[in-house]
Amino acid sequence: MTPRIAVAAVTFDRPRELSVLLDAINAQSRQVDTVCLVDSGTTPARAVAEKHPNVDYVRSEANLGGAGGFALAALKAVASGAKWIWMMDDDAEPVDPECLATLLREAEARDLEAVVPLVTAPGDPNRLSFFFRLDGKVTHDRAEVEKRGFLPDDGHFFNGALIRSDVFFKVGLPDMRLFIRGDEVDFTIRLRKAGIRFGTVTTTAITHPHAFSETQHVYGARWHVIVPDSAFKRHYYYRNRGYLIRRYFRVRSFVADAGGYLGYFLQRRDVPGFLAWARSFGAGLRGKGFGPLEDQKF
Asked: How far is CA 296 from CA 72, 96, 224, 232, in A?
């Protein structure tokens, strides 16, 4: 019997991108059975969703963030009876109609419980939207990563990740407390701790907007920090980094962040930036600052 496949997708005020994504999903050579779509946007995307009969549209009047949206979408997808859950953000797009079929084939051939495609920059297929660390150095070069063929225990969740449904029973859903930024890191850590067999294959890809400008090198190619482009994103990224360091007692990450951000802000003599980082990062280390979006200070 052909296994059921469900897409777990989230959207927030991107009707044009959502339409492109849904068209691409339903153009796959391996058809999906249902698309569980969670919409937290300020303007409902129901009209876009209704163009596709296999979309199970869920309207959330509360902004759940990416983390909460993926948690709800994944739960709906698991409840649909699907064996495989294909995670997708609304501004992602499979690069070709064989993407899903390739992921399924790779998962079976490598006996994987989760498999992740490469994520390339729109309009620049030779550049990866998110870096990999190879031999201690970060790279966005697709050719360099493709040489590896397969990267075990590594991958950029949730965009394009194909996850067996029973994995969510083993490690849980994405943590909605993280809202945005860091929920993928938390989920990846839980996969590793649970011994889930997963990795990135270089034989297929999706596109997703890149974050090149966020990577700031401090002490050469081997030491960098991530600095998002808005106060809103910086708050959640810094807070969630602190929280994950505390939750998983990641001493090396603490040293890297403390030294890296201190160096970054000192080099620029950016005292307000350093204080904003310290407040958000410190809140995460103390396990504070979680709650409704309107309660957050950033």
From this structure: 22, 40, 27, 10
